[in-house]
C-alpha cells in the first residue's frame, strides 16, 4: 500500500475543527484592518450602536489583532452552523434560532480550548494565542471574509456559500505563522433586497448597515430598561432576538442537513405554547432557560419584551 504524504499542520487543524463541530475554517494574516476603519467609524458616528457603549471602546484594538495578542501572526476563523430544521411551537413568541441551544459563548469556548490544546500538541510546545466568540473587540465578520469563508450580505451577516448565514463565528488569534487563505471575492447578493424589504422596522438602513436603535434583536437582547410604546410595537411577537432578515434570505433556503457533534436542542423552549409563554413565572424561566443565551435578557427582560405583567 502506498503511503500518503504527512498532513500539514493547517490540514490537521481543519480536520480537528471539523471533529469539534465547526463546519468551516479559514486562515488570515493578522494585520491591521485599515480598510474597515472608515466603516466602523461611520457606524459609530451615526450612533448605530444605540445603548451598546462597549462598541465605542477599544476602537484601535478592534482593528488591530496584535493589541489583543502580542506578535499575532494568524487569525483562524471558525464557522458553527445551527441550521437544523426544527421549529418553535406555532404562533409562540419568537426566539432567535442561535438561542435554541446551550449558550454558544460557553459551548464554542470549550471546543476552541480543545483546538488550542491540539495545536500545542501538534507543535510539541504551547502555542501562544487567545480564542474568542463574541467576547472581545474583534471584527469577527471582517476576519471571516478575509479568511475566505463568505461575504457580508445586505443584512450585514456573514454568508457562507454552502452554509448560509445561520452560523456563529469564533476565532483563534495566534502568534503562529500559517499560510493565509484567499479572501472571499465579491459578494453574491446580486440584485436581491429581500432582507431590506422584509425587516419590519426598516433597521437595515443601507446594504450591510444595521441601525441597532431600530433592530428587534438589539431591543429584545441588549436594550436596558423599559420600552416606549413605539418600541413595544416594534418588537411585537419577539421574545428574544430576531431572524427575519435571515429567514427570507435565499442562501438559507438550501436543504437542511442533519448536524452532528452539536449541542443539544432546548426542547423545553421549542415546545412552549403561546399560553405557556403568557404565564411563565421566574421558576419556570430558570428551569427552561438554564445555560441558555436567553438568560442574557433575564426574566424581567423577557416579560418586558412580551409586554406582560410580572408573576
Ligand atoms: C454589535 C453586534 C450586534 C448588534 C449590531 C449588529 C450589526 N449589524 O453590527 C445587534 C445587537 C443589532 C446584533 C444583532 C444580531 N447579531 Co450580532 N453582533 C454584534 C457584534 C458584537 C459586533 C458587530 C460589529 O462590530 N458591528 C459594527 C459594524 C460596523 O461592524 P461589522 O458589521 O462587523 O462590519 C465590519 C466588517 O464586517 C466590514 N464590513 C461590513 N460590511 C461590509 C460590506 C462590504 C462590502 C465590505 C467589503 C466590508 C464590510 O467593515 C466593518 C468594519 O467596521 C458581533 C460580534 C463581533 N465581535 O464581531 C455579533 C455578531 C455580528 N452577531 C451575530 C448574530 C448571530 C446576530 C443576530 C443574527 C442575532 C439574532 N438572531 O437576533 C442579529 C442579526 C441582526 C443583523 N441583521 O445584524 C453573529 C453573526 C454571525 C454571522 N453569520 O454573521 C456575530 C458575529 C456574533 C458571533 N460570534 O457569531 N449584533
Ligand atoms: S434582525 Fe430583525 S429587526 Fe434586525 S435587521 Fe434583521 S429583520 Fe430587521
Ligand atoms: S436576502 Fe438577499 S440581499 Fe439580503 S443577504 Fe440574503 S441574498 Fe443578500
UniProtKB/TrEMBL annotation:
Q: Which UniProt keywords apply?
A: 4Fe-4S, Cytoplasm, Iron, Iron-sulfur, Metal-binding, Oxidoreductase, Queuosine biosynthesis, tRNA processing
Per the record, the GO terms for biological process are:
tRNA queuosine(34) biosynthetic process
Q: Which InterPro entries match?
A: 4Fe4S_Fe-S-bd, 4Fe4S_Fe_S_CS, QueG, QueG_DUF1730
Asked if the Swiss-Prot or TrEMBL record annotates the protein with the keyword Metal-binding, the reply is: yes
Q: Does the keyword Nucleotide-binding apply?
A: no
Q: Which GO terms describe its molecular function?
A: 4 iron, 4 sulfur cluster binding; epoxyqueuosine reductase activity; metal ion binding
Domain 4Fe-4S ferredoxin-type positions: 180-209
| Alphabetized NCBIfam families for the sequence | tRNA epoxyqueuosine(34) reductase QueG
Please report the name of this protein according to its UniProt entry: Epoxyqueuosine reductase
Q: Name the lineage.
A: Bacteria, Pseudomonadati, Bacteroidota, Bacteroidia, Bacteroidales
Amino acid at each position: 500500500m502506498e503511503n500518503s504524504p504527512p498532513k500539514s499542520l493547517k490540514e490537521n487543524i481543519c480536520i480537528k475543527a471539523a471533529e469539534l463541530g465547526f463546519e468551516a475554517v479559514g486562515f488570515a494574516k493578522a494585520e491591521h484592518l485599515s480598510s474597515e476603519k472608515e466603516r466602523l467609524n461611520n457606524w459609530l458616528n451615526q450612533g448605530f450602536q444605540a445603548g451598546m457603549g462597549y462598541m465605542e471602546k477599544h476602537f484601535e484594538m478592534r482593528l488591530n489583532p496584535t493589541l489583543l495578542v502580542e506578535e499575532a501572526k494568524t487569525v483562524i476563523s471558525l464557522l458553527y452552523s445551527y441550521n437544523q430544521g426544527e421549529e418553535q411551537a406555532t404562533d409562540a413568541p419568537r426566539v432567535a434560532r442561535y438561542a435554541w441551544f446551550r449558550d454558544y459563548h460557553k459551548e464554542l469556548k470549550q471546543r476552541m480550548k480543545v483546538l488550542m490544546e491540539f495545536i500545542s500538541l501538534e507543535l510539541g510546545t504551547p502555542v501562544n494565542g487567545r480564542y474568542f466568540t463574541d467576547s472581545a473587540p474583534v471584527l469577527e465578520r471582517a476576519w471571516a471574509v478575509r479568511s475566505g469563508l463568505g461575504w457580508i450580505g445586505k443584512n450585514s451577516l456573514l454568508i457562507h456559500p454552502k452554509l448560509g448565514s445561520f452560523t456563529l463565528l469564533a476565532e483563534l488569534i495566534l502568534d503562529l505563522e500559517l499560510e493565509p487563505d484567499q479572501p472571499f471575492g465579491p459578494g453574491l447578493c446580486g440584485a436581491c433586497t429581500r432582507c431590506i424589504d422584509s425587516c419590519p422596522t426598516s433597521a437595515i438602513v443601507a446594504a450591510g448597515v444595521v441601525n441597532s436603535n431600530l433592530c428587534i434583536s438589539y431591543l429584545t437582547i441588549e436594550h436596558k430598561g423599559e420600552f416606549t410604546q413605539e418600541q413595544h410595537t416594534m418588537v411585537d411577537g419577539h421574545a428574544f432576538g430576531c431572524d427575519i432578515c435571515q429567514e427570507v434570505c435565499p442562501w438559507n433556503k438550501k436543504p437542511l442537513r442533519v448536524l452532528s457533534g452539536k449541542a443539544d436542542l432546548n426542547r423545553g423552549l421549542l415546545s412552549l405554547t403561546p399560553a405557556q409563554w403568557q404565564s411563565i413565572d421566574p421558576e419556570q424561566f430558570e428551569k427552561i432557560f438554564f445555560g441558555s443565551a436567553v438568560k442574557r435578557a433575564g426574566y424581567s427582560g423577557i416579560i418586558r419584551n412580551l409586554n406582560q405583567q410580572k408573576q
